[in-house]
Amino acid sequence: MARKLLLEHINVPGINTLDVYRQKGGYRAVEKALKTLTPDEVVEEVKKSGLRGRGGAGFPTGMKWSFLAKPEGVARYLVCNADESEPGTFKDRYLMTYIPHALIEGMIVSSFALGANTSYIYVRGEMMPQIRILERAIAEAKAAGFLGKNILGSGYDLEIYVQPGGGAYICGEETALLESLEGKRGNPRIKPPFPAIAGLYGCPTVVNNVESIAAVVPIINDGGDEYMKIGIGRSTGTKLISASGNLVRPGVYEIELGLPVEEFIYSDEYCGGIANGKRLKATVAGGSSVPVLPANLTLKLANGEPRLMSYESLSEGGFATGTMMGSGGFIAFDEDQCIVRNTWNFSRFYHHESCGQCSPCREGTGWMEKVLHRLEHGHGKMSDIDLLVDVSKKIEGNTICPLGDAAAWPVASAIRHFRDEFEWHVKEPIKSLQGNYGIANYAVPIPKAEVKQEN
Amino acid sequence: MIKEYHLTMSEKVKVTIDGITVEVEPGTTILNAARQIGGDIVPPAMCYYSKLEGSGGKCRTCIVKVSKGSEKDPRPMPKLVASCRTTVMDGMEVQNITSPEVIEARSGVVEMLLINHPLDCPVCDQAGECDLQNLGYEHGLQKTRYEFERRTFERIDIGDKIQLHMNRCILCYRCVFTADQITNKRVHGILNRGDHSEISTYIQTAVDNDFSGNVIDVCPVGALTDKTFRFKNRVWFTKPVDAHRDCPTCSGKVTLWYKGEDVLRVTARKDIYGEVEEFICNTCRFDKKKTADWTIEHPTHISDTSVISSNHYETMIPLPVIQEDLRLQEANKVELEKTAKF
Question: B79 touching A, CB under 8 A?
């Protein structure tokens, strides 16, 4: 049984209340940090732990914290990014629903480390129940003296506010989130300046994902060195994976990084294999923004070694044969699923969610969506496939924020790996409307030589 | 002499754009450094406007490649950057027209800007002085690859003098920033998201302001047009003349656009990058359309690459008096070169 740090007590009845959470060792980290450590020591522990941002980019959290500018007389802010809206990702919602105090505890420790006296949790507007849960948890923590003035007699003051967003995906981008939090339209800002220098209201700000902040709690409890021992290489600790799609047991799983993908999909401890006795055709390993991979490349690297659930192993092979850890939204497709339809669905999402600031993303996402719609509905042309690749290239890297890249990668990768299926949709429009392409050779192990050709 | 120059300018930073080195003040953007050099290496800018704080970074037409970050950190930047919002570092090397990657990406941006543009230049008042037209001409494809219906909006009247034609809008946000700067009220004037965003009500309410007419001048395309000039004439049939008047609200320095005896429209004076020199008030722009209202200065200089210059005062054929006098020939060198060119 793998070690659990965040979800250890998830099945304890009443863990969402402060009393039960305290009985299970909750708020030890707050006591330890505020009474025995200095803010810099907390930052140092997090640095030592090797914790990497769980929101998608995987930037080391400790390093992000140490970049925070600390000018005299200027407020600093910690903002928790709970605007989880990536298709396929639902781990933060799970965490906030069932064990909200883990987030509050992490917020207190992190705010203390950063010297923030006001912190915000920016929650996506659709998650109203979770907002209520968090507000109740904050009230409980405040009543118990973990929030407010002079916490635990340490002289440290902290207030945490929950801010509902308007439900825009773009507000998960940190600078758009800050704009939205300031009450403006959620358009990403042009960087530099980075939020660590000028963020919320122009003050130094750190924006962290829910899971990153919650992970600070075990780091402080057990020490950064202990945390670093879990995981593999530079991917340390545990990670919540939201598994969805055609799996026997979809849901949120806490895994130790470095778990083989094959074990994650097929073992009974985790997803329990593909539902209804079907075969795996493809996966999206880290939420809709990352490249989609066929089954053969999901389970094995191009050189035949097993692929692991870690930042490095998932991105092994670059865009040619790899994908990314992303936010941990693991979507599995069985042989009955249509990649063209799924790609269209994703690009429809990005078309709807593009903020409209940069021209390539504003116009390009809509264009891709329309072309994919045509392909899926049997009106496509052979030239459409190359057109899609070309449009996705023109969006990628040419925008202010990564939404453009996120919109381009699923399309580019789907065509890279599933070109046969796209061509079949053009050649056999009627058949493609009635049935689907099936698994084809997507699960057949790729010989090394062929991969080299692709590169 | 040169040494002294370098000593006194030691605080300045050196940047090389397409092989041309220039020394600029620290904090200058790549685009403004390029404008100091001038010529073909200046990246086109659709959304950046030097007079509007916070503008730029959105249209992506000014993207350039930074092949060397700075003297201290010579690594190239991983992505193409928006030159209007990237500040120069000492020793930075930038590629604009010398980089095929940039040209490729820019033509991609132009294509994106055009796919939902109605391309109604034949009936658009902006034609002839439209930044998008110029850009499309320089970088665009012969034929569109977009085979879908373009998005459409209803025309909106912003007050009785300005019309908003959202179909043509490229969402550069310049008018929003203008409204922001002149009114100090709300911070945004865009509704909706993505490719269905539109400039909206905020500007409609800003129309009371004395300077609201400037949104027409800052608009790089024909989305905001002057209703007092709408369909009156093509710009290349009109003759621009610089003039001024004693105006209590603005500087009163304008360009009058004549057709025969009549002043068809009044605009602010624009520099070679299409940016106004000074914002003018609505009274000057919409109400003073008689020659008697103005003190005429001289014909406006129009770039000889502009379609407007084809009908300009500066005649192609040098007058006989010039042909005989060497000093006058020297003074009219540009005109004589034009004659030779055609």
Answer: yes
